[in-house]
Amino acid sequence: QVHTTRALSSAARMFAALHLPAASCSYVSGDFRFRQGYCRSNPRKMVKTWAEKEMRNLARLGAAGIPAPAPLLLRLHVLVMEFVGDDGVAAPRLKDANLPLAKLCSAYQQMVCIVRQLYQTCRLVHADLSEYNILVHKDQLVIIDVSQAVDLDHPKALDFLREDCAHVNDFFRRGGVAVLTNRELFDYAVDPNINDSNEAAVLGELQQRAATRPLERSAEAQVADAVFQQAFIPRKLDEVSHYERDRDRLAAGASSEGIYYQVVTGMAADLSGAGQSPVQLHRQQEEAAESAAAAAAAAAGADHAQMGSSSSSNAADLGGDLKPGKRAATMAAAAAAAKLKPKSGKGPSFLAFLPKAEDQARPSAAAVDSSSSSSSSS
């Protein structure tokens, strides 16, 4: 039994047949942990299974270090868990927290890491991750309502993950945060080549891309997100019908649009073999190599133009005695080489997802317009 003092600081969740989602069976049917079967026809037994599923999922989150209410007691369809709040006042949901922009950027970085940690460490997909199922307590995000979270073996796990990425990005984008694309967040969560040694570099590269994009998505970006949300993503190469065709297409330099299985299957970005580095750093290295090649070509052109002139003494430093054309080419080559160096330190700043200065004033007006339109429509 739970002592009275402990129960006062706990939250009890009672599962009833009326509170179960309409498609609750789809969240349990593909779960390996319930392979022995469950009763669909008896609602009382079904809600007991649902409560047991949430307790198991909360235990996984706690073991992985993800902030979540600790389960205290399970009795039939009643689950008692830790109370999240101060002095008897529950912590607000992310939707109701009204965080300023700086704290929203910090919260988004936490959310990006939590999505990956859920997938890689807990081997779970939340399947209903949104601002309604996240609490804000002491500047930290707390994940709740994990009863519908599914194991990675679930046949719809990747579909649920894409929906989670879309819901998270939509909320933070409305708040004015420079968010990733749905595919970037998805690839970051499922990439098996990201580890402790390169995770900071990957996050830094993703944040740089997000900061360079405008807050208002273009029509092409919206179409790309919509196509990605509906596309079939194979889990294994056995499910790929035309691997050679896709590989030849990427080798020819064509766009990877429509080919979404490289990261989740652990392949290289060009499908030439097994991936050796995160796809985000692979793209960064390709861009840096192209910049270095262009800088080398510009330097060679400057040298060729100066062959007819009288030779001068070698310059001791880059900024002093070099000719303007050669100086610019050398500086460009040095900058391209610097991009190839691994980043060090504790990782990107929480404020790295801040949008451009001219875009920071737009979200509030957009949020007002969206709220007024939704209220008028209702």
Report on this model:
The protein is mainly alpha-helical and 378 residues long. Helices cover 46% and strands 8% of the residues. It has helices spanning 4-8, 24-29, 43-64, 101-120, 157-174, 182-190, 199-212, 219-230, 243-251, 279-305, 324-340, 362-377; strands at 10-14, 71-75, 78-82, 85-86, 89-90, 124-125, 134-137, 140-143, 150-151. It has a three-stranded antiparallel beta sheet with strand order 1-3-2. A two-stranded antiparallel sheet has the order 4-5. The longest helix has 27 residues, at 279-305. The model is unreliable at 1-8, 314-322 and 339-350 (pLDDT under 50).
In short:
The chain has 378 residues and is mainly alpha-helical. The chain has twelve helices and nine strands. The strands form four sheets. A three-stranded antiparallel β-sheet has the order 1-3-2. Strands 4-5 form a two-stranded antiparallel ribbon.
